[in-house]
Design goal:
The complex is a heterodimer of chains A (357) and B (257). Chain A is built from 14 helices and two strands. By secondary structure, chain A is an all-alpha fold. By secondary structure, chain B is an alpha/beta fold. Helix content of chain B is 35%, strand content 24%. In chain B, α6 (153-167) runs parallel beside α7. Chain B starts with 5 loop residues before the first strand and ends with a helix. Classes of the chains: A mainly alpha (357), B alpha/beta (257). Chain B: Residues 6-250 form the ABC transporter domain.
């Protein structure tokens, strides 16, 4: 291969005697550099450390904290935010955002309830229709974002209002009472059932959350589709040139997010007992899920982070809420500290990104 | 005389009132390195995009190995064995080298895990990626699972070239592969280009760097005002002649005659 090498000019003669290596990896790592590299490869490590530390701190501050019942209550309280967080995670991994998640969840739960009680559709069928409609709402977001190229923030800001008001209009602001559901359509409350090993109540919803996170962790890490989700968020143009059908992936991601939200809507019925169009999730679900995602170390710029991190992020919020309540402080401290954590998480994300430079 | 492996006749591409390709011809011979040079705005990019499927010409036809082809997208062209290394490299910085090499054509595990659970065959993908990088002498990359963003510019270019060479069974197109690189890294990439040719894969090299073009190219396609002005051999002309041709200061004898 060196046969017909005929350097056209002499300027590269100056290279003779220079080191022959081209950008080899020098292991000149200081401890800080090593930590930075490790975090770069293990994005869920930071929230895990924060979680462990906060559990230890609260266990020391309050005798009641480190108990099975407390832990199961925390898990129970993050079940809905965690499932909506799964939806938010895949969307944010594509460098998007979904402000309509909470609205889709509430609207889906209302649809399931009203289809059963107003239209007399059998509960299991109503649930399937509710899940399908939730998916369709997500797909509408995906269509507007991937085909019409509208910014995700604007699209979902709009659909958030549209879905939420449709939910009030359709339900006529009526709440379906818990007793009626338990009597006529217990399937709607399925996720509110619990197992009680040793007297500790664990809701089915908690297992559902864990299974969903585990399945999505597998899908994102070990399937081509999951890698494409990351590639779209990382650099959509590059992914397209490399042969990823970016529009299709985006549409699928938003539709799947819609399905997760509808599942969260179903879980809400089990968790609260009743079907209420004014559930706070409709207004706060988006902010709560984005908080879990950000504290979980997932980059808002897309392409980085893991869904397990989101799970830890949701747990951190739950631990803070419960811990501070047990310690007996003003509950506003919870939001104060969560605000600090969000800024800390983003600062760490920025620092980890610098590993490449 | 051998038949060109890839040729185009009378390609026309208009963007509104601007004619980017004006009845342009193009020939690529088997096993050669063909450089494409031209001034800014001469239509080099449009030509390359037409050949790699990124744009669809308004008129004219493209023939690959004697078969008329029409590429609707870069994926189409890839399916025909034409790989392009874009100037931007088209890599996902946060993903690993192996993930990037197989982006859009991942391998799945055999059996139930692959078919039902669609699990990626990471060991096979990693082994293949490592083998390809080794073949091209990119031994300095230790860990096939490191993120592309932790590589230097030259290494990234190397991975992109390796990806194209690994899958480009018929033609590899390189768009300004040395534009962003230092002297040493450019040298490495030029060696890579020769390595790829020594495997019998013809290469189209778009470059502004005359020393590099004159060093590696077998023939030079000079593009001017949306069409092929001439094809010269680097031994017959000097670099300043080539620059004069592409800027219109001089006209090559064959064309003038």
């Amino acid at each position: 291969m060196t046969d017909n090498t005929k350097p056209a000019t002499g300027f590269e003669e100056g290279l003779k005697g220079a080191s022959e290596t081209v950008a080899e990896f020098r292991e000149e790592k200081s401890l800080v550099k090593k930590i930075q590299h490790w975090l770069h490869q293990t994005p869920s490590a930071v929230p895990m450390i924060v979680l462990v530390v906060s559990v230890i701190v609260f266990a020391l501050l309050s005798d009641n904290f480190f108990r099975a019942t407390t832990m199961s209550t925390i898990l129970q309280q993050i079940a809905i935010v965690g499932i909506i967080g799964c939806a938010q995670t895949i969307v944010i991994l594509t460098a998007g955002i979904d402000l309509s998640v909470g609205a889709i969840a509430v609207f889906s739960s209302v649809l399931m309830g009203q289809l059963t009680f107003r239209f007399g559709i059998p509960a299991p069928l109503a649930i399937v229709i509710g899940l399908a409609l939730g998916t369709a709402m997500g797909a509408l977001n995906g269509y507007l974002i991937s085909r019409l190229k509208l910014p995700p923030f604007i699209v979902t800001l709009g659909t958030w209002q549209i879905f939420l008001s449709s939910n009030y209009i359709f339900s006529k602001n009526e709440t379906i009472r818990s007793q009626d559901i338990a009597e006529a359509a217990p399937a709607l409350q399925f996720w509110g059932n619990a197992i009680q090993p040793g007297g500790v109540k664990v809701l089915y919803a908690v297992f559902l959350l864990i299974v969903l996170v585990a399945v999505m962790a597998y899908v994102l890490r070990h399937t081509a589709w999951g890698r494409h989700v990351y590639a779209v968020g990382d650099d959509a143009e590059a992914a397209k040139l490399a042969g990823v059908q970016t529009n299709k992936i985006l549409l699928q991601v938003y539709a799947l997010a819609g399905l997760f939200c509808a599942i969260a809507g179903w879980v809400m019925i089990g968790r609260f007992g009743s079907v209420s169009p004014t559930a706070s999730t409709g207004v706060l679900g988006n902010i709560q899920s984005i908080t879990a995602v950000v504290i979980g170390g997932i980059s808002l710029f897309g392409g980085r982070g893991s869904i397990v991190g989101m799970f830890f992020g949701a747990l951190i919020v739950g631990v803070f809420e419960m811990g501070l309540r047990l310690v007996g402080t003003d509950p506003q401290w919870t939001f104060f500290l969560i605000g600090v954590l969000i800024i800390f998480a983003v600062a760490v994300d920025q620092w980890i990104r610098k590993v490449s430079s | 005389m051998t038949e060109p492996i890839l040729y185009a006749r009378n390609l026309v591409k208009r963007y509104g009132k601007v004619t980017a390709l004006d009845h342009c011809d193009f020939d690529l011979m088997p096993g050669e390195i063909l450089a494409v040079i031209g001034d800014n705005g001469a239509g080099k990019s449009s030509l390359i995009k037409a050949l790699s499927g990124a744009v669809q010409p308004d008129e004219g036809e493209i023939t690959l190995e004697g078969q008329k082809v029409q590429f609707g997208s870069p994926i189409d062209a890839r399916a025909h064995g034409i790989e392009c290394v874009y100037q931007t490299l088209a890599m996902s910085p946060a993903l690993s080298i192996a993930d990037n090499m197989f982006m859009g054509r991942e391998l799945r595990k055999p059996g139930i895990m692959g078919q039902w659970f669609r699990q990626l065959d990471r060991p096979r993908m990693e082994a293949f990626a490592r083998a390809k990088l080794n073949e091209l002498g990119l031994m300095t990359i230790q860990n096939i699972n490191q993120a592309v963003e932790t590589l230097s510019g030259g290494q990234r270019q190397g991975v992109a070239v390796a990806r194209a060479a690994a899958f480009g069974s018929k033609v590899v197109i390189l768009d300004e592969p040395t534009a962003a690189l230092g002297v040493k890294e450019s040298r490495k990439v030029l060696e890579l280009i020769r390595d790829v040719r020594s495997r019998g894969i013809p290469i189209i090299l778009i470059s502004h760097n005359m020393p590099h073009v004159f060093e590696v190219a077998d023939r030079i396609h000079i593009h001017r005002l949306g069409r092929r002005l001439a094809v010269i051999r680097p031994n017959d002309y000097s670099m300043s002649d080539a620059v004069a041709f592409m800027t219109g200061a001089k006209v090559p004898e064959e064309v003038a005659a």
